[in-house]
Amino acid sequence: MDVEKVPTSLMASLQSLGYKATAPRKAIADLLEQKHQGFTAEALSEELPSVSRATVYRNIKLFIEAGVVCRLTLMDGSHVYSVSRTDHHHHHYVCMDCGKVEEFRASAVEQFVRSIAAELPGQVVDHRIELYVACDRCPAEQAG
Amino acid sequence: MDVEKVPTSLMASLQSLGYKATAPRKAIADLLEQKHQGFTAEALSEELPSVSRATVYRNIKLFIEAGVVCRLTLMDGSHVYSVSRTDHHHHHYVCMDCGKVEEFRASAVEQFVRSIAAELPGQVVDHRIELYVACDRCPAEQAG
DNA sequence: ATAGAGACGATAGAAAGTATCAATATGGAT
DNA sequence: ATCCATATTGATACTTTCTATCGTCTCTAT
């Protein structure tokens, strides 16, 4: 289990895909840089009243496409988004109470996926692993 | 990786929780017994025009509560439901093409989850593992 | 400075699921 | 077998989350 920080700015990652550096986009990127909890699209939109809701949704999609934001599914089926701090394939655990999201990598999982894949007909195209936790320090960690 | 069939009827599983055996409920249960692909709530509703959409949704929730139906999240974030054929804790793989859902158990995964849990602050409350596959035999397997 | 692709805001609409509530059906008690 | 309390249903309105449309505006390459 390890995580490597990749400090490239979120805006830069969109620009490298050819997307323009517009003001609303920068505002979203700047806000995302601060985020260390999972967030809903709606909440993000509310934090940026100067940016149209449609634009917030559009850009979340682009950030996901660029690989710098991930969408998680909570136990109730709702979605939260999380800024990715690593370049590498990884999975997430989410605190059900404070919304904090952490990334992990574990070769054991990937190995398991490969071994399952070998037993199945066809190809394993992708996989998703999510852990839902109740972190001990929630009350102390409520922040952006 | 193994699967144990539990042939108890879906209706019986609701009745054992104290829910009544109504005609719409039976119709839903009967249809579910046939299902070997994942399905959306909407599609199920369309297959049962004699049952109100609200009743279909309500009962899917009850079947999930009873542990005989599971909700999966596809890669695009949409939800499909799948009839569970086992009593035991398990995970799923879904064919992205034909919608077929299979259950698997693998002690390696559970062991991994325990080992991750040991490294985290707090408790791992739950976990979800989903594999997305493209099964070789899709065209031959399109059926209810 | 300009032009054209890309992006934006505003708003309407789609998709998926939930709430409300009057009418009905079920299952246990009699 | 009948009755009754309560669970359940259907119809519909509503909510939430997200997408499409479209006319206008803004980047960025030249």
Low-confidence stretches of chain A: 1-7
Strand content of chain A: 15-25%
Largest sheet of chain A: 3 strands, mixed
Chains forming the largest contact: A-B, 38 and 38 residues
Using the 3D structure, state the CATH architecture of chain A: Orthogonal Bundle
CATH class of chain A: Mainly Alpha
The tally of strands of chain A reads 5
Mean pLDDT of chain A, as a whole number?
89
Q: Rg of chain A from C-alpha positions?
A: 16 Å
Distance between the termini of chain A: 25 Å
Biggest sheet strand line-up of chain A: 4-3-5
- Give the number of helices of chain A: 5
Shape of chain A: globular
By oligomeric state, this entry counts as homodimer
Approximate helicity band of chain A: 25-40%
* CATH topological fold name of chain A: Arc Repressor Mutant, subunit A
Class based on secondary structure composition and strand pairing of chain A: alpha+beta
Integer count of domains of chain A: 1
Order of helices and strands of chain A: HHHHEEEEHE
